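Protocol step 4 of 5: obtain the predicted structure for the target chain.
Materials: sequence only (see below). No template structures provided, no constraints applied. The aim of this step is simply to have a reference model before the mutagenesis design in step 5. Sequence pasted as it appears in the construct record:
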Amino acid sequence: SPIFVREGALIALAENMVNTSEKNWSNMTLDVYPSKDYSAKTTIYEDDATTVAYKDGKYRTTDISMEYTDALTIDIAKTVGSFTDEFRGFTERTFNVRIHAREDFGSITKITLNGEEITAEVYDISESASPFAFTGASRDSVIYEISFKTDIYTANQIKVWFEHPVDDGVNGDYDDSAVDFKVTVEKITKQSRNISGGSDLDW
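Step 4 output (structure tokens):
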């Protein structure tokens, strides 16, 4: 079956694992589907995954957003909050950022990390690739992949420039399918019914 991902999607992925206790989230991938018109936001939520300490505020969140300004811009905010756990309470994370190239955008001409130009690893389309792979090739497009390690309490910004990015526009067929309708409430009555006897099977 096909898997559909909207233009402008930003998907955070953890490493493949059999269960959640096998690996922590010190390595994560951001799957990026560029768009000039659609933005995206996601939040990484973490706690010790064992106790109920999160009820006392022992957890942390990392907001990630993407939008097109002068270039495709991905902002990874500094992590907010903390908790104590030897396995999950790390303070450094490695991000793999996988940009799914678009033919109509042309080639990627430059990528910067916090203002410094960096070089991406490029993977050609592969029919044997798995959907939402943590690293490597993809079935749907050429992949430009960058990887960097960062303190989780430091914000980072990735910017990506394309040869000739194009507007995505709107889905006119969908927008034109809207139907005007009006609901009028003429009378409101208060009614009750005792269904405790179990004889009213339709309630």
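Step 4 remarks: The chain has a mean pLDDT of 90. Helices lie at 172-175.
Proceed to step 5.
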